[in-house]
Amino acid sequence: PIVIRREAYAAPDWLVPEVALDFALAAAATRVRARLSVTRNGAHDRPLRLDGAGQRPLSVSVDGVAVNDWRIEGEELVVPLTGAAHVIETEVEIAPERNTQLMGLYASGGNLCTQCEAEGFRRITFFPDRPDVLSVYSVRMTADKALYPVLLANGDPVESGELADGRHWATWHDPFPKPSYLFALVAGNLAVNRGSFTTMSGRVVELGIWVRESDLAKTDHALHALKLAMEWDERVYGREYDLDVFNIVAVDDFNFGAMENKGLNIFNSRYILADPDTATDYDYDAIAAVVAHEYFHNWSGNRITCRDWFQLSLKEGFTVYRDQGFSADQGSRAVKRIEDVRGLRAAQFPEDAGPLAHPVRPESYQEISNFYTATIYNKGAELIRMMASILGPETFRAATDLYFDRFDGTAATCEDYVACMEEAGDVDLTQFRLWYAQAGTPRVSATLDSVGSRATLTLEQHVPPTPGQSDKAPMVLPLRVKLFGAESGTALTEERLVLFDRARDTIIFEGLAERPVLSINRGFSAPVIVESDRSAADLAFLSAHDDDPFARYEAMQQLMLDTLVASAVHGRADHEGVIAAVANTLDDAGLDPAFVAEAVLLPSESFIGDQMAVVDPDAIFRAREALRRDLGRRLDAQWRRALAQGVAPYAYTPEAKGFRRLRSVALGYIAASGAADAAELAFAQFEAADNMTDRQGALTTLVSGTSDLRIAALDIFYNRYSDNALVLDKWFQVQALASRDDTGAVVAALTRHPDFTLANPNRARALVGAFSANQRAFHAADGSGYRLLADQLIALDRLNPQTAAKLLPPLGRRRRFDAARSGLMRAELERIVATPGLSKDVFEQASKSLEG
Ligand code: ARG
Ligand code: ZN
Predict the structure, then answer these.
(1) How many whole angstroms from 369 Cα to the centroid of ligand 1?
(2) Count of other CB atoms within 10 angstroms of residue 259
(3) Do 541 and 516 touch, CB atoms closer than 8 A?
(4) Can you tell me which atom of ligand 1 is nearest the CA of 297?
(5) pLDDT value at residue 852
């Protein structure tokens, strides 16, 4: 395999200040003519090399004269040039309707659209397809007017007109130089929901959300979120939009969430379409977050882009941090932080502990698509968050102003960003930079010893080895720390931000009036694993008294984890501490129901497994179910009270969302208790629901139960939504996630269901992706789960390598399991690697999973 290395970066030999593209669009065959003005970058005599993807140029000309001294080397078109500036023209023909990879120009639902990040543009035309080549684009499109009445591209529309034979044309111009990965066009039969936004300097921006006509009624939430995001970025970061139009197009076939193409964002329709009957609260929140994320990229990504793909977190980590801040401001800051940390622990911690671990700024890759990971995105966001806490809010804002100002219009690096933080903050971030270079989640052990009025906090850190990095240096861990009085329950100290930057350190607290209880890593100030020797009693105490809601949640999680691990590993099941703490939380009338719902939820099976030396999925399941049953039984009255609370006609407000969330958690506990009426209660909620959150919540409870009502509910749900692809995804997903003995067999049967297709990434993820997240079913001792995943992945790889490769990581966690399971996983990985014609995407993931 060809390995691309960060240290091998060299500036481009040729720049392309201007590009004119002319598309004769049709699904079967599209002609692309490209005119590139190229200028030599520095003194050299090397030819022009343009990236391609297997196409043959139909013609090549230099300065208006057809040439034939070009050659194809690998996938590159090599054109010898004599002077320092030339105009190169090429023509190719591509077949959008045969593009199943969904990279480049492809067809979705009868429309044509593009996806170019990271390296899709080379599938459209020959070009130096790297992010440090910035060009001003002019685009002309011609297409059949009946099939493709709407023609959109980046920037602002210029002109359009009619042609003979039912065709029409449009031209667009984007004045902002941009890399090829931000190029986009859409041709289709689309309806638009229009809005407008007036920026802080008075520019009136025309907004448009483009979807198929029948989905138009589901676009108001996305449009509203877009306006909120535009206003938020002005207020919080001083960032203003810079074109006269901002368009978003929703397509059903999309490899990931969405794409920030300049002025023309293209979205997976699941992150645009919503109404109360078809989208859950989770969907609504995700739509607002992704709309904001892509919009925020206009500054963190587009105005300032990445020099090379090793810098991907420069735009993604920062933009995730920005969208997290936006979402936090829309509702409860504490609940948002809890959700983000739960996501980090579910996706990024396992990645950091497995064979695919990589630093936030990787050193090498085979296929860049494999590096759009939780580490780059979510751990990357935590790095920004740590720098923001070290600087404090005002200084952080000054530092981002400096960054936006200094690097506007350029392709920058993570180092450039950190240097701005350092300069504006007047701090030394030399050691902090290790966060970009060292993979692995740091482990911190914290012990608090108190004698009289004095307490000593001893901290030790250890960064575990990861593939290619055996020895790690201590990192800077910003830990928010506070002490509480064990008797009074009040604060004994102010909160302190401890910059813990050595292998071992001690911190002394004096003048303490009573025995202190340690609250540490408050707000999850550092993305680390804290091991403390706090007793169950102290954790229960913090879960009731800590004044940081995140720390309260965290104390409860730790208490639950300790209980569950003890029970799964040693078969010791003392549930009393957890039951008392949960009861206390449920009875605390002052708490936000959304917070309560998070706090009383048990850690996931996979997170419990992460705490064990050898993951035992059966023991974890049994331990978790036993605790759920006890919590359900002992707190039956409280759960029923929660279930009756806040019932009101649907509204999408933080308050109503909180009640819905708590009700669905309560329903789950009532079902876990084995109560005779549990299935009836769930079915009644399923039928009475005036929104998808309650309906899907009830269905989720039913499918994991034994009542035949689950069959009825699944049928009703299917028939009601059989023409709605996004809701059918939910129908597949709830079944794949069900906690049942027969889930493996059900999922195998669903792969043959007439509505199942691997051609649509959402559908593939809804069934196969969800199944591999189902610990009990996926890790079935006979290896049937592993085989199912490998079969589907191999089949999907022939169509869509990028999406196939994203499904692989669960198989790579093999070293965490017993020898039998580990051997079965290895066998499937070996079968995958031995598959003829395997993509480099899947090869990289599978071979690294075998080595690591
Ligand atoms: N830049 C897009 C976003 O985060 C995602 C692009 C993903 N590309 C990929 N090759 N996986 O908003
Ligand atoms: Zn992004």
Answers:
(1) 8
(2) 24
(3) no
(4) 12
(5) 81
Exposure on the CB side of residue 338, measured as CA atoms within 13 A:
24
How is residue 56 annotated by DSSP?
A: P
**CA separation for the pair 667, 483 (Å, rounded):** 36
Which atom belonging to ligand 1 lies closest to the Cα atom of 120? Answer: 10
Is there a contact between 36 and 87 (Cβ–Cβ < 8 Å)?
A: yes
Atom of ligand 1 nearest to the CA of 118: 10
Give the number of other CB atoms < 10 A from CB of residue 228. 18
Q: Which residues of the chain have pLDDT under 70?
A: none
Distance CA 365, CA 711 (A): 46
Dist. CA 729–CA 740, nearest whole Å: 19
Q: What pLDDT shows up at residue 573? A: 84
Rounded distance between C-alpha atoms, residue 316 and residue 181, angstroms: 14
Mutate to test the pocket of ligand 1, among 117, 322, 323, 803 (most ligand atoms within 8 A of CB): 117
Q: Report the distance separating Cα 741 and Cα 54, nearest Å.
A: 47
User: What is residue 133's predicted lDDT score, i.e. its pLDDT?
Assistant: 99
CA angle 649, 653, 659 (to 5 degrees): 65
Structure tokens at 298: 């206009």
From CA 695, how far away is CA 685, in angstroms rounded?
Answer: 7
Instruction: Return the structure tokens found at 277.
Output: 């009957």
Q: Is the ipTM of this complex over 0.95?
A: yes
**Residue type at 378?**
N
Work out whether strand 305-306 and strand 411-412 pair parallel, antiparallel, or are unpaired: parallel
Q: Which long-range contacts does 556-562 make (Cβ < 8 Å, 24+ apart)?
A: 556/581, 556/582, 556/585, 556/599, 556/600, 557/603, 558/532, 558/534, 560/602, 560/603, 560/627, 561/603, 561/607, 561/608, 561/611, 562/536
What is the 8-class DSSP label of residue 346? I
Name beta bridge partners: 174.
137
Question: How far is residue 623's CA from residue 132's CA, in Å, rounded to a whole number?
Answer: 53
Q: Is 621 exposed, middle or buried (0-12, 13-18, 19+ CB in 10 A)?
A: middle
3 state SS of 834: coil
Q: Name every protein residue with a CB atom under 6 angstroms from any ligand 1 atom.
A: 117-118, 256, 258-260, 293-294, 316, 369, 372
Helix/strand/coil (H/E/C) assignment for every residue in 195-264: EEEECCCCCEEEEEEEECHHHHHHCHHHHHHHHHHHHHHHHHHCCCCCCCEEEEEEECCCCCCEECCCCE
User: Do residues 226 and 195 touch, judged by C-beta distance below 8 A?
Assistant: yes
Gap between the Cα atoms of 25 and 144, Å rounded? 8
Single-letter amino acid code for the residue at 122: R
149-197, pLDDT tens digit by residue?
999 999 999 999 999 999 999 999 999 999 999 999 999 999 999 999 9
CB 678 within 8 A of CB 705: yes
Distance of CA 833 to the CA centre of its chain: 27
Contacts with 786 (C-beta within 8 Å, 6 or more apart), sequence order: 778, 811, 824, 825, 827, 828
| β-pair partners for 152 | 186
Q: How many CA atoms lie within 13 A of 627 on its CB side?
A: 32
CB-CB contact of 181 with 116 (8 Å): yes
**Which residue's structure tokens are 């207020």?**
235
> Under a CB-based contact definition with an 8 Å cutoff, are residues 762 and 728 in contact?
no
Q: List residues with catalytic annotation.
A: 294
Task: Please report the beta strands in 26-155, taking only residues with DSSP state E, as ranges in sequence order.
Answer: 30-40, 48-51, 59-62, 65-66, 71-73, 76-79, 85-94, 104-108, 111-115, 135-144, 150-153
> Residue 769 gets which letter from DSSP?
I
Distance 116 CA to ligand 1 centre (A): 9
- Dump the DSSP string for 556-590: HHHHHHHHHHHHHHH-----HHHHHHHHHHHH-TT
- Alpha carbons 491 and 547: distance in angstroms, whole number: 8
pTM for the structure as a whole: 0.99
